[in-house]
Amino acid sequence: MTGSALGAPAERREGRQKVTGTARYAAEYAVPGRAHAWPVPAAVARGRVTAVDTSAALALPGVLAVLTPGDAPRLAEPEDATLAVLQDTAVPHRGWCVALVVAETLETARAAARAVRVSYDTRPHDVDLNEGHRDAYAPEEAGGRPGTLEHGDPEAAFAAAAVRVDVTYRVPPLHNHPMEPHTSTAHWDGDRLTVYTSSQGGTVVRSVLAQLFELPEERITVVAEHVGGGFGAKGTPRPDVVLAAMAARHTGRPVTLACHRRHLPTTTGHRAPTRQRIRLGTDADGHLTALLHEVTTYTSRVKEFVEYAALVSRTMYATPALRSTHRVVPLDVPTPSWMRAPGEAPGMYALESAVDELADALGVDPVELRVRNEPDREPGSGRPFSSRGLVRCLREGARRFGWAGRDPRPGVRREGPLLLGTGVAAATYPVMASPSSASAQALPDGTFTVRVNAADIGTGARTVLAQIAADALGVPLDRVRCEVGHSDLPPAPLAGGSSGTASWGWAVHEACTRLAAHPGPLPPDGLTVRADTTGRADADSPYARHAFGAHFAEVAVDTVTGEVRVRRMLGVFAAGRILNARTARSQFTGGMVMGLGMALTEGSTLDPAFGDFPETDLASYHVPAHADVPAIEADWIDEDDPHLNPMGSKGIGEIGIVGTAAALGNAVHHATGIRFRELPLTPDRILTGLLSEG
């Protein structure tokens, strides 16, 4: 129907390709003469390579080359130091690539990599995250904002508060583990480079490769037509694409490098662990008088990355005294990076768990306590909110969940050996957009083609962009084609920060609006209009722009085994205009499932002796299985916000994970009466707590 494309539950356009296996991913471009590469990861936690014996590897039939720091192609110095692979002999952490085997087959490359013998001059290493570490420092920035923010006199206000909560929550290292591991296929044709890669942003990959190999961008083609997930780990180029291009240049053959899943934790980023101390003080009526959120995390010595978990405290609750700080410890660890809702996911787990503790201390309903401390402006910036639907989400969620019938006393609901409990938590995620370009073409047959170098990482971007175009053009959806995932298309920012659709859609909407206004008949070969939102999408806003949500959960805790079983979950969100009801619900529920994993199953450790993660595959790093996931309900409230973008939309890819872990943790406390302050809530932790209380 004309003019009604936006909001409709349109099916994904690439869905049939994916379920029939015709959608091609980065390793499935079988370029003639293709060889395969396999990296050799460093076996020491810190030191220097003194020798690389490649003789046994080169003796294997089918091995084409072994690249080492001594003979690998030279690169220009990258802005991202994690991409300076095989450029010197330094080993900054275990798992760093110290050699690369290229062979006729994947199996041969893997066998040859095991045959490479590397000698090291080892150095003492440090992987211990300690709040009192001598090298800890306060970063200038965290997530692009000041690392420290303080209003009022937080220490004095906390000391004078009628009711106080002082707690510390811990989140372990977490890993992205997309279904499609990081993979790239590279091919040189003279001085022209073509790369098929699994990336959240082909435009960024192209510019980085141009800088590293000192080529004009027009000589590089990057194809990322289908991407099997990323969750932030594919937001910027990773070593796989650089190594594939180096190997292809060195051998003169097309080369595919598909990362083994066991290599991902040390080479493609992870969520850094956080230690979060939260102090909340209120008056006798439960109004916050002090909020102090102090985060300690680590970064690698290769490149600074700050898990900006304290930023959420600058958005959520009204208080005259606020402290939001980060401290970072540089360690000999793999470089952390973005993981779905970086900062917000761990930060809201700690904050919303502490708010639940405060509600207990006050004897106030947790929903009502949040409503009572609703701010009229963003506490950290003082800016008015463009829209803030948190209270509506809490009220609607409480109604649908049956919250009013909840017995607030912990540990009283029982079914045989099972203790039952319910919990609630709020969610927030910032609204972001970046400049993008797009083109829209009208053809004489009445059809239209939209082109933008967007990345569809499994979210249905093709479909939603076509809906935006159809709505702006005033035509049925089936008359609009959408091309994405190729660097020959108009440049676009990456799919990250829940900003992809807002950024690309802004440019698509503008191009199509201008095309629809064209007077008279079309030329014989059609008409193309191009739009670029630079200067508008990145303009400063006088408003604080955020999506909000409320999570409700019910759990059953087995007192015999310590298992936590989720019975039901409900998320209600305020995310502006929902552009596709089907894909939006999929995004919300997918985030909630990932939050369930964060709460109950996912966790990693750094081995102090080896400086590595023992949990390197899906047998030891436990993501939720179907049996772990109950019937999950996700919905939204209508929200009209004119201060966002032409579509009135907010990002939805990440807010589903934010707050989920806290809601589940709060439900476990309500079930057991025991407060667990470290994730994940595995049976051993639960059972230990139950036994100690018993």
Coarse shape: globular
Give the CA-CA distance, first to last residue: 63 Å
Taking all Cα atoms into account, the compactness measure Rg is 26 Å
Q: How many helical stretches?
A: 15
The average pLDDT value, as a whole number, equals: 97
User: What structural category do the secondary elements indicate?
Assistant: alpha+beta
Give a count of the beta strands, DSSP E runs of length 2 or more.
26
Percentage of residues in helical conformation: 10-25%
Largest sheet, in brief, is: 7 strands, mixed
**Spans where pLDDT lies below 50 across 5 or more residues:** none
β content, as a range?
15-25%
- The side-by-side strand order for the widest beta sheet comes to 3-5-1-14-11-12-13
Topology:
Blueprint lengths: L14 H6 L14 E7 L5 E7 L1 H4 L4 E5 L22 E2 L5 E7 L2 H10 L1 E6 L18 E2 L2 E2 L2 E3 L2 H7 L2 E9 L11 E7 L2 E6 L4 H12 L6 E4 L15 H13 L3 E4 L5 H4 L6 E9 L5 E13 L21 E10 L12 H19 L3 H7 L17 H12 L11 E3 L2 E13 L6 E6 L5 E4 L9 H13 L6 E4 L16 H17 L10 E6 L13 E13 L5 E11 L6 H20 L30 E6 L23 H13 L10 H11 L1
Parallel strand pairs: 1-14, 12-13, 16-17, 21-22, 25-26
Antiparallel strand pairs: 1-5, 2-4, 2-6, 3-5, 7-8, 9-17, 10-15, 11-12, 11-14, 15-16, 18-19, 19-24, 20-21, 20-23, 24-25
Helix pairs in contact: 8-14, 11-12, 13-14
